[in-house]
């Protein structure tokens, strides 16, 4: 049925809605399914007991991941605003939480773009073989097409021993002193060698503060990525909702192609066997449970503000419960499915090199050897996984709802945002830029998000109240969440997040990257970056308390009361049901 103008709030009249339900679902799937599903889950599964890892993974998914995922979708759909405005309405005391989310989205998804840029052009021909039994020593590193360029010269230069598939690297002061001990060196593939030296130019940088020259190939790709993102997002969800038909579905086409190809490789069966063989004794290790919790949380992405932004463009009676379950299952099934592909290829690598799979299957190897076909699909690699669309949309929606003038001039606002991305990004595409990327990944996108989601859960479950939140959901889909969801939101989810935080801090170690130890001041800079967003939460809360009037208890009481006019929203939602006659007609059940 149709609604009359009197039954719709002004902000709902002006707000865009998804033209089709599938646009929303594909956007959520595209956001939550990324390279973490393709390469990190298989590695963690292998590292933590094979098939046995599915036990802690499933438990963390059911008790923490899906409840938080469902919570954020429901918050966005009911309040129909971005993160900043939503938190100001749900619990004004924790409005600073939204600032943390926006900062995190900038840190995390901006860096995701930079990673995609690197992946676009790191397309080495690493499956080369030597011509006969007599391999030769060369002071070189392999470039695509078989050409060679000199590596670092002089004492301590890089010496590559080329054998089928792999290079053997070691340091030698004088080439005449080489003996058969060469085979005790570090084994790495030409893919890794080209990626770090030929593409990134890391050998020209002495570390964190030595940025060196710009890598112009990366600069060009940086500009290309943001141009693609701009024209995909400048008109809002009406355009981006169509772009995701390619960016969310095309990866699955590639996955099926790689599955078929991988199944034909020698050694593929052994790889799958290593992937799935359970080792239940590993479940006694606390690290296994920490890895499972981390993987669930960062692959589903609850609390990032993206799900909230996407859901805010849904009709009020969209079945958000069904959407949460459906997209979560798709996310996890993709992770599991991709494991077969990755370990088929690792089995093939082990077969070709004669190494045991346990020596081949390292996290770095999985990342560097993400199948060649995947990395060689032209510039479409830039948008093959669209989490960067989601992160940018979360920032754009949050700021546009808080400052309506930005919404009225969205094209200019989005252009300025991506121009800022590009200018700041130049530091990251220099010869030492990869050290900056690693630093920002480690400090800018981890603890800040965990603290933000922890306070989000506490604000919804304890300040706003689970009963109010359940009534909001009932007004949208016609039924209240059961006791399972209440318990998860109020007790289990906060414990789930604190579990990750505590174990992460307990296992903290100064940053390293491939043998390079970051100086202490770099770690201090990293913690300053993390705290810049985390401190928004208590900082804004203290500021709000100081500005309020009355006694301290009165100030806090008023600041935890919702200002989102929920009674009026529920009245309109119920009135819409009466006009339509049935909630199921609105949600397409």
Strand content: under 5%
Distance between the ends: 15 Å
User: Shape from CA axes?
Assistant: globular
What is the total number of structural domains? Answer: 1
Q: Give a quick account of the main beta sheet: strands, pairing sense, barrel closure.
A: 4 strands, antiparallel
Q: Helical element count?
A: 28
Unreliable segments of 5+ consecutive residues: 1-13, 122-187, 371-385, 584-589
Say what the CATH topology is.
Amino acid/polyamine transporter I
The CATH C-level name is: Mainly Alpha
Query: Could you estimate the helical fraction of the residues in percent?
Result: 55-70%
Report mean pLDDT, rounded to a whole number. 76
> Over all CA atoms, what is the radius of gyration?
25 Å
